[in-house]
Amino acid sequence: MRIPFLFLFILFLGASCFAWPEDSIKAGKLKHGQRNGTWTYYDQNQHISKVEKYRKGKLRQTYIFNSSGRVIERINRKGHVIKLRACGC
Questions:
Q1: Which has more pLDDT, 21 or 42?
Q2: Cα separation of 6 and 64, whole Å?
Q3: Which candidate, 47, 79, 35, 44, places its Cα nearest to that of 61?
Q4: Which of these, 6, 33, 4, 5, lies nearest to 18 by C-alpha position?
Q5: What distance lies between CA 5 and its chain's CA centroid?
Q6: pLDDT per residue over 16-40, tens digit each?
């Protein structure tokens, strides 16, 4: 009985979903111990608050969303912030 529980626990921890700064849940994949691909952050209401794109462990792009789910900021790999209209235009 203990071995299946331990196996499921380890399997859950090894999954590509990690959590838990106080106000958000983040989900993404690790490749060779580094972040890779798209990492999505959710707020307490399960709305997307931020999306980060990684390649070989390096952050390439960040998108910040408002409470209605529209992109309001884009940050490139050099840290340049581009403010976007949240009106959907």
A1: 42
A2: 37
A3: 79
A4: 33
A5: 28
A6: 444 444 556 788 888 888 999 999 9
Q: 49 near 24, Cβ under 8 Å?
A: yes
**What ranges do the domains of the chain cover?**
14-83
SS3 annotation, the chain: CHHHHHHHHHHHHHCCEEECCCCCEEEEEEECCEEEEEEEEECCCCCEEEEEEEECCEEEEEEEECCCCCEEEEEECCCCEEECCCCCC
Question: CA torsion 21→25→28→30, rounded to 10°?
Answer: 30
- The answer to whether the pTM exceeds 0.70 is no
